[in-house]
Amino acid sequence: MWGAVLACERCGQKNWYAVDDLADQLKCERCLGHTRFPAQNPKARLQWAYRVNGPFSVPDHCNGAYVGLAAMRFLAGNHNEDATCVPSINITEKNGGSLEVDFLMWVRERRYWLREEVYLIAGECKTYAHFEPRDVRRMQVIARKFPGVVLVFATFRDKLDPQEKRSIQRLAQWERGLRPPEGWRAPIIILTAKELFSFDGAPQCWSDDSTLKDKVERFDHGKTIEATADLTQQLYLGMSPYQDWAHEEMKRRLVRGRSRRGGQ
Ligand SMILES: [Zn+2]
Questions:
Q1: What are 80-120's pLDDT values in tens digits?
Q2: Which label site among 8, 9, 76, 211 has the fewest CB atoms less than 10 Å from its CB?
Q3: HEC states along the chain?
C-alpha cells in the first residue's frame, strides 16, 4: 500500500498514513493526540512510503517466515530443483525430547545431466537477531542425529558478528574434521542478505563482487550445495577453501604420524 510516514508533533513518534487518509489533522496512533499535516514544508517532515498489506503485515517480519522462505528458495536453486519444504518443525525424539528446526527440506539436485543427489537440509533462521550458542548446539545435535544433513544458518543481515562467527566456525571445523575423504558429513552453509536477496541465486549472487572472482571461478556448478557450503564458509567464517584445508590437514597428519613413530 502506498502512503506517507509522518512524525507526530506532540510525541515525535512516526505514523504511517494511507494516501486517502491524509488530511489537515491526523490522529497519532502512538499518543492518540492529533498532529497537523506539514502543509508549509511537507518535504521536511513527510516521507512517501509503502507499507506491507495482508498476510505480509504480520509483525516481526511475518514471525520470521520471510528469511526461511528466502533461504528455501535459494537452496532449491530458485525453483529449478525438485524440493519438498517443511517450515517450522518439531522433531520428537525417542526419549520424549524435541528439537525445533526452522525449516527442513529435501532437495534433489541434478548433476551432470543424468546423475542426481538428494539432500536433507535443516535451517536455522534469524531475521535480524543473532545466532546464539544454543542455536548452534541444537544444529550440532541435528547433525549427529541425521548424518549427512546440510546445516543452514540464514539471516537478512550482511555478516555475522565475531561471537556467532566463532561458534559456527567451531561447528564447521568439527564437521571438516569428521568428514570422510570421499564426501561430506554435515556441510554448513551461511546465507546472508547477499544470497537471500539475490534474484539469480548461486553463484551469480557473488559475481558482481570483483574481490570474489577467484572464489566464484572455483565454484563447482555440478555440486551447488557443497560448493555453496565451501564458499560461504570462506566468506562468513573466514575459513580456507575445503580443498586447501584438506591438503594442509593431510600434511599435518603425516607429520604427526612421523613424529609419533619417531618417538617410539
Ligand atoms: Zn503522537
A1: 778 999 998 898 888 888 889 999 999 988 766 667 888 99
A2: 211
A3: CEEEEEECCCCCCEEEEEHHHCCCEEECCCCCCEEECCCCCHHHHEEEEECCCHHHHCHHHHHCHHHHHHHHHHHCCCCCCEEEEEEEEEEECCCCCEEEEEEEEEEEEEECCCEEEEEEEEEEEECCCCCCHHHHHHHHHHHHHCCCCEEEEEECCCCCCHHHHHHHHHHHHHHHHHCCCCCCCCCEEEECHHHHCCCCCCCHHHHCCHHHHHHHHCCCHHHHHHHHHHHHHHHHHCCCCHHHHHHHHHHHHHHHHHHHHHHC
